[in-house]
Write a structure and sequence with these properties.
This protein has 516 residues and is an all-alpha fold. It contains 21 helices and no strands. It has one domain.
Length: 516
């Protein structure tokens, strides 16, 4: 499982790094203000769709269902099930895209009520409609990626999302060379979102993955209805971080530039969250599904324990690093062009509060597969709904007094509310299995992470903010590299992991699926 996890995490890391480049260019192109707020509010919808569908969330429902059909009825039946799934999802999303296009003014009003009475609302509606083709392309992309993941073929699905960011970066670079006005640039960039989705689909169709779903047939028979009844709650729950951001945007839309500040701060949260979260959904769900189906409690405990160790080992140092280095990271990545120093300060403050919720988001990603593997998608959905409600209520209160920073703190509180709900429910129903090795390693991981955080805090003020950009880039890179190195050395000294074990995990082949 570790090797598969690292494969998916590497692809996700590459995609997130390209995402940073994309968002840095968006900040330079659009800055903050009405045009940027309108574009980013519309883009939030695309991000929710990506989490609902193509970035691993649907695996939580599709993979267990496909594996059950294949193991019970054979390869031909599984291919027929996948063919019905591919055609039905594609047809449904085309219909949904048309309905959403017609009702877009109402949708934008709901997610950004602060835009009412201003031209920002019209801009957001126009941008969102231009992005809608992505929704139709994301459906078949999702099914094909899920089929590949179910067979343990993670490389293609891990790296195909890179095309999305590559296409948008190319579009932004072209628009910057043309020196177009911000409104026209936002329209063109919104249109490029659909093109990016098409590129992902074409890449997957060029592989033999399409043969895993045949024949194609639209069907809403009992099997399909049963699948969607279980899948939709899980898909919504898997997008918890994005729903929380929408909760924040609902309140932030009343404050100029606040939507933009929260968006750019959240992009930095999504790097570690994406690495852990997507890998959890892609790798852990199949592992737990097989273990639960076989009744092997030791296998279940081992999968859950390793997932918790990996989640803690990546999320906690990332949280501390983002809090300590918030301002230099934001200035380096986004303070260019139309994005000014005041925007950097506001974004960094929001980032510090959002980072407090990162461990909760990762904990949710580690806990949710235990429910999905038992065909329980309602519990994660209810936990997500509770977190959303908590975030909205607190954002109304804290946003009034503390602005974007208060809204960011509310989003973090909503994440912790969802995490505690899952932990309490899972412990009461079936108990989470944490083996002896995990109980021994977890405190040591926490100790190593806080030691790394202390090192970063001591070195945070060594380079003044007015230093040349290249100097700040080198200094920040050295700080991060030193922190990672110290963390790795401490993990080895404390006996959590050795370099030999890490190399062995990379060399071991993924356990073959007997039905593949």
């Amino acid at each position: 499982m570790i090797r598969s996890f690292l494969t998916v995490s590497t692809g996700t890391l590459a995609s997130r790094l390209l995402g940073f480049a994309r968002d840095s260019l968006i900040a330079a192109l659009l800055g903050t203000g009405a045009v940027a707020d309108a574009f980013l509010a519309a883009f939030q919808l695309v991000n929710v769709v990506r989490r609902l569908l193509s970035e691993g969330a649907l695996n939580a429902a599709l993979i267990p269902a496909w594996l059950r059909v294949r193991d019970r009825d054979g390869e031909v039946a599984a291919a027929a099930f996948a063919g019905r799934m591919l055609a039905t999802v594609s047809a449904a999303l085309i219909g949904i895209s048309i309905a959403v296009a017609l009702s877009m003014p109402l949708i934008i009003t709901i997610i950004a009520p602060g835009f009412l009475g201003s031209g920002t609302l019209d801009l957001a509606v126009q941008n969102a409609r231009l992005m809608l083709p992505y929704l139709a392309f994301a459906g078949p992309v999702t099914v094909l990626m899920g089929l590949l993941n179910a067979q343990g073929r993670f490389a293609l699905t891990a790296f195909s999302p890179l095309l999305f960011n590559v296409a948008l970066i190319a579009a932004i670079a072209t628009l910057m060379l043309w020196h177009t006005d911000a409104t026209f640039a936002a329209w063109m960039l919104a249109a490029a979102v659909g093109v990016a989705g098409l590129l992902q689909l074409l890449m997957l169709l060029s592989q033999r993955s399409a043969r895993l779903a045949a024949p194609l047939r639209v069907s809403f028979d009992e099997q399909m209805r049963g699948f969607f009844a279980k899948a939709i709650p899980g898909m919504i729950a898997s997008s918890g971080p994005q729903w929380l951001m929408i909760a924040g945007a609902i309140i932030a839309s009343a404050t100029p530039s606040a939507v933009s500040w929260l968006y750019f701060a959240n992009r930095l949260i999504e790097l570690p969250l994406g690495i852990v979260g997507v890998a959890m959904g892609t790798v852990l769900v199949p592992e737990l599904t097989r273990a639960v189906a076989s009744g092997d409690r030791d296998a279940v405990g081992q999968a859950e324990s390793r997932a918790l160790e990996l989640a803690t080992g990546l999320a906690l140092p990332a949280t501390l690093g983002l809090i300590v280095l918030a301002e230099p990271i934001v200035r380096l990545l986004f303070e260019h062009g139309a994005f000014g120093a005041n925007d950097s300060t506001a974004t960094a403050r929001a980032l510090m509060w959002l980072a407090l919720g990162l461990p909760a988001h990762v904990l949710i990603k580690a806990l949710s597969p235990a429910f999905y593997a038992r065909s329980d998608t309602m519990t994660p959905l209810l936990a997500t709904a509770k977190g959303f409600a908590v975030a909205v209520v607190l954002a109304v209160l804290l946003g009034h007094y503390f602005g974007a920073s208060g809204i960011a703190a509310s989003i973090a509180a909503g994440a912790w509310s969802s995490a505690f709900s899952l932990l309490r429910k899972g412990t009461g129903e079936f108990g989470f299995s944490v083996d002896a090795a995990a109980r021994k390693r977890l405190p040591r991981i926490v100790l190593a992470a806080f030691a790394m955080g202390a090192l970063l805090w001591l070195s945070a003020g060594l380079v003044p903010s007015e230093a040349h950009g290249l100097i700040r880039f080198i200094a920040l890179g050295l700080q991060i590299a030193a922190g990672i190195s110290v963390y790795g050395v401490l993990l080895q000294i404390l006996g959590v992991a050795s370099w030999r074990e890490a190399a062995g995990a990379l060399k071991r082949p993924v356990r073959p699926d007997p039905g593949a």
